[in-house]
Design brief:
The chain has 2 helices and 12 strands; from the N terminus they run βββαβββββββαββ. It is mainly beta. Strand 1 and strand 2 form a beta hairpin.
Amino acid sequence: GAPVTAPSGATLAQQRGTFRNDGIVAELAGVPKLKEETSFSYSAGIVVSRENLTFTLDAYHIDINDRIGISGAIDLMQPGFEELAGVASSGQFFVNAADTTTKGVDAIASYDVALSVGHTIQLTAAGNWTETSVERDSLVRSIGAVDVGSLFTLQDVSIIEEWQPKSRASFSVKYIAEDWDFIARLNHF
């Protein structure tokens, strides 16, 4: 646990536990049993191929309901958690915390240039745009009958929404000379 400074300036010992969702502590706290995450997705794509040029474009949309995550620290010393006296000052539990939506587009274009027998240059460009959002009205705020605030902290929401690159791009040149391949690639995040 981490020490906490009281208003008087004294340091108070704190003990935080991470508890199993199907254990006795979770049961006494009123943590609901985990439900399976469910998802609904749809996608569409197109492929265009002309002689040495190939282009693909794919778009997708994914809704995940009852996404499982670990809660932020819950104060187990507040009213409503009396049955947990002495277990820990605060606790974390795995819970079905929120619903999320992911949408994105992938595009790839490749072009082959035949130089001579056994020698080819392949040019490839690829790009991706993806965005994931947490449905704010789906955030779980209670454990048992106690309103503990959002179980997904602002940092948890930020990890899902902001910590992954929203776009990526790459360009590569591959030179094929009979039994040898040479490649140069640029990536952008």
